Hints:
Oligomer: single chain
Largest sheet: 8 strands, parallel, barrel
Strand content: 5-15%
Number of helices: 13
Amino acid sequence: MTEPHKQPLKGRGELRTQPQPTRSDRTTSPVERSAQDAAGANRPALRIGIRIPPCDRADHVVETVRHAESLRFDDAWFPDSQLLWRDVFTTLTAAALGTERIGLGTAVTNLATRHPAVVASAARSVAELAPGRFKLGLGVGNSSVGPVGLRQTTSAEMREGLGLLRALLDGEEWEFEGKVRSRLRDPGAGVPLHLAASGPRNLRLAGEIADGVILLSSISPATLTTATARVREGAETAGRAADAIPLTVSAFCAVTDDVAAEARLLKPICASIAQNGGASFLALAGIDVDVPAHVEGIYPDLVHAEDWPRAVEICSAWISDENALRFAEEFCLFGTPARIAERLQALHADGVTGVLLQHVGSYHPPTELIEAIGESVLPALSPSTPGKADPR
């Protein structure tokens, strides 16, 4: 891509927001009835989202989304990887037509396997079917680019790509490859652009130009503090109000009375982090491991292994049960409903505006997690909880 056009782009210094359905327009969820913290801050209620991989026909996946909506989840987020799952925008279209209240988003799509102009058109098409409910989450590519031999998007490319997307979605012209100036016909859907980030460069970039941030830093207070500081630095550079930028934290989650047993399933996740330069991250929990750059017998990769029990067995060579337990306790939302609710409240008090809960596995819907959170955790965040009040 060439240098962006020289006209100022809308939204670069201001947050693009969508009108969210008001409590008079829709059923109020238990999470939305959470009161502000003891200091009386007027922070929006914490949004509880669930990751739903497009692992089946779109009409079947929509049943899972409807189930989450019926249990008062605020958002459904869909990952994008063209070889692992069905097409994410096809699934989102079905979800938009098949639901009424729940927020929808990509977590995440990319600008490598999909040209930014194609992403702009797809995002506009979904957003007009779900007014005020769609967010476009973008990332560097990961499981989309690796299996087809492409590299991840650089920070410089991401900056230009977000500028291109915003211009097209705002109805402005863009100069492509220094050859032609074009625009998106019928753009007016107003799509917020959320950037998924973990490294300092992309965290600063998100604070500078994105409408929201999907934090891949886990729920550990230490990593969250560092990540949000980088977002704030980027916001200050652009003269933006950092406190107004939505922060969604991604976390693996399991409702259980036996954390140690469930934690064993996290071994491939922990191994993948170690394999990809996350030693300092794991060290925060006292985890010191050395995983080979390539692990035989797991397809397509550690995080998305098709045979998860086999992946757990293989990764046990480097990740002990004790390491897995430490990982679950420090970085994930594993535990009883009361414990998970307590940690969600703490995240909200620390400035997090949303969570993106993930189950372990990529090729089946998170039905059990949806039911466990919806039936036992969300009620624990109701006005009857000590320290909570009904704002109605």
